[in-house]
Design a protein that fits this description.
The complex is a heterotetramer, with two copies of chain A (104 residues) and two copies of chain B (255 residues). By secondary structure, chain A is an alpha+beta fold. Chain A contains three helices and five strands; from the N terminus they run αβββαβαβ. Chain B has a six-stranded parallel beta sheet with strand order 8-7-6-9-10-11, with helices on both faces. Chain B has a five-stranded antiparallel beta sheet with strand order 3-2-1-5-4, sandwiched between helices. The chains are: A alpha+beta (104), B alpha/beta (255).
C-alpha cells in the first residue's frame, strides 16, 4: 500500500475521486498476494497492481463503475486457459477483488 | 469522510504495524475498522480499535481479536466470522512495516547476503566508511549504500522491530559501537560475525561499556544457523536462514 | 609427456572428483601426483595415487592421505608437509564435479530457489512438462529449462553425488516417478515438498512400487529446515539451507 | 578448470605451447579463490582468470617467460593501495600464483 499513497495524494489534491481495488482471495498461486492494491482515479489513471497484468484493465472498468454508483463491489476473475497465463497471470486460478470508492 | 483513510495512510507512512478490517459483502459492505497497537509502559503492546466500526459492537470486538492475531502473524487474511447468528465476510488487511536488513561492513559475505535478502523482499542497507569496500561495483544490487561510520549511520535510522542488524566488519572498533546502537533499539534481530573467541572479547567490551548481560544475550553469535560451510555464500545463507527463523518464531510467540 | 595432463582433463570432463598435488618450491618444483577415487564393490570408495609422483615414495604416501581428506572436503588447499626432515610446499588442487540442483516442477517456489542456488554457484535445472509453468518469462534465470516428463528427463541426466534433486509439483503422478529415478542414482540430496500426510501417501506409493524403506529414508520430507515461514521465498530458503547442511555434513563424514 | 579445457585443446592441436597459472595462496579475501586458473598460449592469448583483472597481464608476461625457460615459478602479487582496488582486484591483499609450462 505504501508505494501507492503518494499518487493517491496527488489525485485527491487535484480534486479527483479515487477508487481502491484490493485482492481479497486467491485460489491457486497468483502473481500478487492477498491485500495487493490498485488505485484508480476518476479519469482512469492507475497505480499499483492486482495481477501480473491481465485483469488490470477489467478492474479499472469496475472501479470507474463503482465510483459512479458510489458503492463497493466484490468481483471474481477466473483465469483458467493457457492464453490467460501467457498474458501475464503467471499461476492461474481465480482471484477475487474488492473494489470501493475511497470515501472513508 | 476520508478521516479513516488518512489515519491508515499516516500509520503506514510512519512504518507502524496496523490492520484494516473491511466487510466484503452483505448489508454492511464496505464498513471498516482500523486496528492499531497501543504500547504499554512496560514495553508490551496490545491491539486497540482505533477508528471506524463494522456496524455492530459485538462484531467490532470479535474482529479486533482476530485482527490482533493477524497483526502478530503479519498476515493479511480473509475470514468468515460468526457473530450474532450471522457469518461475516471480512478482510483483515495487515499493513506491516517494510522489513529491513542493515548490514554493517561491506565485506564479501555482504554481497550474497544482500541478494538473498532482496529475493525475500527485504529492503537492504549496507554501511561501511571504507571507500574501497563500499563501492557501487560490488554493491550495485543494494537498496541503500551508506558510506559513513556504522554507529553514526545507525543512529540516524529509525530502527524498529522489523529491522535486522548484522555486523560483519571483522573489526571491533567498527562492530562494537554499531552493536551498542542496535541494542539500544527494538530491532528484531542482531547478529555478529566472528568466532566464539572473538565474541567473548566483544562481550567483555560491551560489558565494559555498561551494556547489561540481558541486552548482550540478544546478539546472535556465532552468527547464523549451523549449515557447516565456510564460503561467503554459505555463511550468508546461514545468516539469512537464522534471521527468517528468528523473525518467524517471534511472530508465533507474539511480540 | 602430457600424459598426466590428459588424465586430469579426462577426469574433469567426466565430472569425476580428483586432486592434483603439485610441489610449489624447492628442487622438486613442478612435480605432480594425480589422486582419483577407486570405487569398491560395496559402494564405498578410497583415494588412490593414479599417476605421477612427487619424487619420493614416502612423500607420495603422505600427500595421498592429505589429498584424500581435501577431496572429501571438496577444498583446494596449500599445505606444508613434513616428510623426511624436509618441509614440502604443496598445492592440493581438488577438482570437484559442478554441483547441480535439479528442480522437478516449475512452480512458484522454484523461482526464488533457482536464484538462491545460482548465488551459491550451483548449476540449476528446472523440469516441467506443463508449458504454462515452464516459461522463459518465469525462468529466465535458470541454467537449463527442460520441458518434458520429469522421470524421462532425469533418466537422461547423469545424476551423481553432486546432484541434488527436489520435487515440488504438488502432483503425485509427476513427483513419484521422479523420486524413483532419483533414488536409483547416487544423488547427494533428495527432497520432496508436501505435508506429512502427503508424504505418508507418497511412502505408500513408493513401497508399492517396490522401493525399499532404506531407500525411501533418503528422501527429506517435509522438505527444508524448519524456518517457520510459508511464503515461496521462505520455503525456497529453507530448502536451500537444508541442501547446504546435508552436503556439508556428508563432506565432514566423508562419503 | 573445466571451462578452460576446450581452449587449451585448441591451442595444443594447433601445435602451440601452453602455460598454466594457478592461484596457490590468498591473503585477505581475493576475487578469485585458491585453485583459480589462467591458461596462456605461447602467442600470448589467455583464457580463465586469477584475479578480477589487475594482475592478468603481469601473469601473462611471467607465463611467457616460464615457457621460454621451460621451468615453473612461484610469483607473488601484492595489491595494497586504493588504485589497485579500483582497477578490479576487489578485496585487496596479496595472492601467490604458480606458473608452469603445461608439459606434464
Amino acid at each position: 500500500m505504501k508505494e501507492i499513497l503518494a499518487e493517491i495524494d496527488n489525485w485527491q489534491q487535484a480534486g479527483k475521486r479515487v477508487a481502491l481495488a484490493t485482492v481479497v482471495q486467491v485460489y491457486g498461486s497468483a502473481p500478487r498476494p492477498l491485500g495487493a492494491k490498485l488505485a484508480v482515479s476518476e479519469d482512469g489513471a492507475m497505480v499499483g497492481s492486482v495481477s501480473g497484468g491481465c485483469v488490470e484493465s477489467a478492474t479499472v472498468q469496475e472501479a470507474l463503475e463503482a465510483l459512479e454508483a458510489g458503492a463497493p463491489r466484490l468481483v471474481s476473475y477466473g483465469i483458467a486457459d493457457e492464453t490467460a497465463w501467457e498474458v501475464g497471470l503467471a499461476c492461474g486460478g481465480t482471484i477475487e477483488v474488492f473494489i470501493e470508492p475511497l470515501d472513508w | 469522510m476520508a478521516e479513516l483513510y488518512h489515519a491508515v495512510a499516516q500509520a503506514i507512512r510512519q512504518d507502524e504495524l496496523c490492520a484494516v478490517v473491511t466487510v466484503l459483502s452483505g448489508d454492511e459492505i464496505g464498513r471498516k475498522l482500523l486496528v492499531r497497537r497501543e504500547r504499554k509502559v512496560e514495553g508490551s503492546s496490545s491491539a486497540v480499535a482505533a477508528a471506524g466500526s463494522l456496524g455492530h459492537t459485538a462484531l467490532d470486538q470479535a474482529a479486533l481479536a482476530r485482527a490482533a492475531e493477524a497483526m502478530e502473524a503479519r498476515r493479511t487474511a480473509r475470514i468468515s466470522l460468526p457473530v450474532e447468528e450471522q457469518e461475516w465476510d471480512l478482510l483483515i488487511d495487515v499493513h506491516a512495516p517494510q522489513e529491513r536488513l542493515v548490514i554493517v561492513g561491506a565485506v564479501h559475505i555482504a554481497i550474497p547476503l544482500v541478494s538473498f535478502a532482496r529475493e525475500l523482499g527485504l529492503y537492504t542497507v549496507v554501511i561501511d566508511a571504507r571507500p574501497i569496500f563500499a563501492t557501487q561495483d560490488r554493491f550495485g544490487h543494494v537498496d541503500e549504500l551508506i558510506r559513513s561510520w556504522p554507529d553514526e549511520a545507525l543512529q540516524e535510522m529509525k530502527l524498529n522491530e522489523s529491522s535486522y542488524v548484522v555486523t560483519l566488519t571483522h573489526d571491533e572498533k567498527l562492530d562494537t559501537p554499531a552493536l551498542i546502537c542496535a541494542l539500544n533499539s527494538p530491532v528484531g534481530y542482531i547478529g555478529a560475525l566472528g568466532s566464539k573467541r572473538t565474541h567473548a572479547k566483544r562481550v567483555a567490551a560491551l560489558q565494559e561499556a555498561g551494556v547489561s548481560d540481558q541486552q548482550i544475550s540478544r546478539i546472535h553469535a556465532p552468527i547464523g544457523l549451523d549449515l557447516g560451510g565456510r564460503s561467503p555464500g554459505e555463511i550468508a545463507l546461514a545468516i539469512m536462514a537464522e534471521i527468517v527463523q528468528v523473525r518467524n518464531r517471534s511472530k508465533e510467540a507474539g511480540r
